[in-house]
Amino acid sequence: MIAAWVGDRAIPAAAVDERVAQLRGGPYAARLPHPSTMEGRNLRRWLTQALVTEAVIEREASLRGLTAAGSASRVSRSAALRSGGVAAAVLAAHPLARALRDAVTAHVTVPEVTVVDYHRRNRDRYPGDFSASREPIVVLLLDQAREQYFAQWLDERCAALVRLAPGYEHPADPAQPDYAHHH
User: Does the domain formed by 2-164 have CATH 1.10.4030?
Assistant: First the structure.
């Protein structure tokens, strides 16, 4: 049985079952929802999202000739929160994802006018002279811009490449029977 396809690559349902079993056998097992509940089924769907995202990362990195050794960068807590969801989980867990992020976002820059405006609006955080504050602001804004760019790029690649089998839909897909993402 197939849970999803990433391009022509099949993601077997057994791979999803294995990932669920790893979590259920881990230190946070008691915190996980029972498998027969809506939350338990949506956990399975979320893990499917993680697996297909990992497969997209592997595919795109391979096309670029990237390896996990290409990235020493880490993911900060604030960057993970900005990326959110599956992108954050994959970036935090997989050096290959970070190497791909670094390659995909290498061209991203922050205009000087944005840096100046940020300094002007955040004088409480940067009370000193602009020249003394410029570099940390550039680093902050560049990290944010790259994380945002990569998350959007990854969403677009997943939308183009991923097909989910019934029962493995995204947890926030209103067409799936356990949809519970209400505002």
Answer: yes
